[in-house]
Amino acid sequence: MMWKKSFLVFLFSLSIQNAVLDDDRTKKTDECPSPRLSSQTTVVTKGQNVSLICSIEKKSQTIMYYFYQGDKYLRTKDNGESNIFNLRISEARDLGPYKCKVQDSISSVYRCSKYSPDFNFTLLDPVATPVLNISVIQTEAGLYITLRCISPNGSLPINYTFFEKNAAISPAISKDVRQPAEFNFTKKSTQGDEEYRCEAKNRLLNNAKYSQYSPIPLTDGDGCALCLQLLPVGLLLVLKVIALIPACWILPKYKARKAMRDNVPEDYGHTPMEVGEYESMYKNQAGEDLTAFPSSPPMSTSG
Ligand SMILES: *[C@@H]1O[C@H](CO)[C@@H](O)[C@H](O)[C@H]1NC(C)=O
Ligand SMILES: *[C@@H]1O[C@H](CO)[C@@H](O)[C@H](O)[C@H]1NC(C)=O
Ligand SMILES: *[C@@H]1O[C@H](CO)[C@@H](O)[C@H](O)[C@H]1NC(C)=O
Ligand SMILES: *[C@@H]1O[C@H](CO)[C@@H](O)[C@H](O)[C@H]1NC(C)=O
Ligand SMILES: *[C@@H]1O[C@H](CO)[C@@H](O)[C@H](O)[C@H]1NC(C)=O
Ligand SMILES: *[C@@H]1O[C@H](CO)[C@@H](O)[C@H](O)[C@H]1NC(C)=O
């Protein structure tokens, strides 16, 4: 019984010891943590204003923040308590490396002072307005359209997206070489009012650029694609004209003839010769009323 008790006591004291050690360890790490230096963006372009933010977990009113570029202390227009440092990127040497330090001489939280890890900006060229190039090939399935888009300037990689009117028709196509992004699609038919444009953007924030809107071109290197599409319509037109030629040619003749005939009085009685001829003919055949069938002979009723 005795040994059991002492064993329990031993275990108990061991666990207390561990707890104290754990507490010590957390206290030690809390005592002097490194601050963290960050910015809204790590990629910048020349002329951009940015802010460096020095942050720690436990804030206090009496903490002082110090900013450095390399080993050089940066004076700040902000008061010493601010954890934000504003700067303007005008040349390559404004990119860094930056670091910051926190110090608290009054509170016991930050008795020591520690530097943050280095922070560098990356300089990027903004994309220039991209140029869209459209080519069209007529195929059995419809118009085979190739859209090409390239931005002459701007740091790579550049993401390109193609739009019809305002709707994206392609995924983002990422190019890490300065070559046009390409997107192919087939269109069964065209209303003729389609407009396309492309968007180019790189990692710089809020820096997307758009090409001009372009319609589907009427011609391209491979011939006149739209002409081909319009061919059936053209053929129909030609056929109509062909159909109209005889009508135009024959109608006047027909009219002239009709006019001549119209001059002949309708009353057969006025031309006894003619009437006499008809009369004798039809009377001989059927003996029916002539006037009812002036131009076609009556059916034979010989029976
Ligand atoms: C950047 O800040 C400076 C003054 O600090 C101001 O003159 C300039 O217009 C700002 N530039 C941009 C792009 O906001
Ligand atoms: C920051 O840039 C400097 C000089 O360009 C370089 O020596 C350093 O390694 C960079 N640090 C980081 C964290 O990228
Ligand atoms: C491209 O960049 C060069 C130099 O940075 C500049 O001279 C040129 O005007 C730019 N071109 C366009 C289309 O923005
Ligand atoms: C469009 O692309 C075609 C074929 O690649 C090329 O011949 C033509 O010069 C390009 N046009 C423009 C304006 O880039
Ligand atoms: C688009 O079509 C052209 C011409 O047929 C072809 O050369 C090119 O590889 C196609 N591009 C893509 C991304 O499918
Ligand atoms: C570019 O597109 C790729 C996917 O194609 C995507 O993962 C990446 O985040 C895009 N980058 C930008 C800056 O939009």
TrEMBL record:
Residues 33-116 form the Ig-like domain. The chain crosses the membrane at residues 230-251. Keywords: Glycoprotein, Membrane, Signal, Transmembrane, Transmembrane helix. It comes from the Eukaryota. The keyword Glycoprotein applies. The keyword Glycoprotein applies. Residues 1-22 form the signal peptide. Pfam families: Ig_2 (PF13895), Ig_C17orf99 (PF17736). This is Allergin-1-like isoform X1. It comes from Trichechus manatus latirostris.
